[in-house]
Amino acid sequence: MAQRLAQIAKLTIGLWLAGVAVAMFLVVPQYEGLGDAGRIVIMHVPTAWVSVVAFTVSAVYSALYLWRGNPRHDDFALAAAECGFLFTALATVTGMIFSQVVWGVFWNWDPRQTSIFVLLLIYAALFALRAAIDDPARRRQLGAVYALFAFVTMPFLVFVAPRVADSTLHPNCAFIQSSQCDGLTLGVGQVGLLGDRKVQLISLEQQGDQVAAEVIVSEPGLTSEATLVPTYSISAGDMQDRPEFPGMRFQLGLEGADLAAGTALLNIEAPGTGLLENQRTLFTFMAANIGFTALFIWMLNVRANLLGVQWALARRQGAWA
Amino acid sequence: MSNLFEAGVAIYVAMVVTLSVWIGIFMYLWRIDSQARALKRELERELQRELPVAPTATLTRVSEPAAQPVESEVIEK
């Protein structure tokens, strides 16, 4: 009976994620400024979320192994770390595709990209460590200790580092209400960084109901520059014209202006901002999160079973794997 | 071939490719899962067969006039 239920659950995962894939293309609407490329958020964020869950599960089983000494716990800890690594790699690849569409390059060492790359290296080192030790008891013990240390870095690298960095282009504001996307306040003549672009406020002047800011934007490496003029409506208290950065789909917005002080609040407007305000996108996104989490649980069990079988076979042959 | 990448068609092509990849991954995972469970069951069965049956013995005191069984114990290997 239990086995039949498990089979039904696995088939449900298959159909559920197939439904998510169809919904991603046919149900979710296009995003303003991003077109069809924005649909990748339905895959990108859930895979990143599952990697966080997987590394947490790995740490819990590692602690259990150190406490109880049960090899089965070590199997689950390793399986969870491997799944986490796989899902992190998937999140990185889908993020790179997004990056190519909106920034024009697959990889530009944005703080978010750099932190995820470091996380991949940390967990790759766990597998290297385990592969380098022949004695199984010692391998499990050191692997468990290392997995706990690796887990401590994960929240910092995934949640903290990209948010404390001033110059990330990652559209955090789209998903997390409390994310800080405060922008940059510049006085006339001052220079600052928005993302990886150097910006310089040249002038700020009122034109009727609107305030226009003349801004020189330089490409990374200062290879070229362009002049953009975002505007702000005084009566509406909101941004008006938002010109696109040269070569990318992010826009330059004038979020506020103090004419007396001669300062302007400039910000990058990510096209992805506000994606989940659409109900169809939100439901598909939630369905993807549930589906990928269930897939992870299934993969975890399969891999842990395989490790258990591998270990039993090695013990049977009298050779310690 | 080139019309596969036209604006109206490309999204369906991308959907079909994504679904094909997912079906492939699902079938692979299903197969690996079945094989791992079968292998695990087989190993457990073999382990049961190979487990030595614990021998039992009844010790009888022969020097005493009344030869009564005094104790039984299981000798483990």
Give short descriptive properties of this protein:
heterodimer; A: 321 residues; alpha+beta; six-stranded antiparallel beta sheet; three-stranded antiparallel beta sheet; 6 helices; 9 strands; B: 77 residues; two-stranded antiparallel sheet; 1 helix; 2 strands; 57% helix; rod-shaped
User: What oligomeric state do the depicted chains represent?
Assistant: heterodimer
Instruction: Tell me the helix content of chain A.
Output: 40-55%
Task: Report the C-alpha radius of gyration of chain B, rounded.
Answer: 33 Å
Alpha carbon gap, first and last residue of chain A: 35 Å
Shape of chain B: rod-shaped
Q: Proportion of β residues of chain A?
A: 15-25%
- Radius of gyration of chain A, rounded? 24 Å
Task: Annotate the secondary structure layout.
The complex is a heterodimer of chains A (321) and B (77).
Chain A (H helix, E strand, L loop, with lengths): L1 H25 L14 H28 L2 H33 L7 H22 L3 H29 L19 E4 L3 E4 L2 E11 L2 E9 L6 E4 L2 E3 L4 E2 L11 E8 L4 E7 L9 H38 L5
Antiparallel strand pairs in A: 1-9, 2-3, 3-4, 4-5, 4-6, 6-7, 8-9
Chain B lengths: L6 H44 L5 E5 L8 E6 L3
Antiparallel strand pairs in B: 1-2
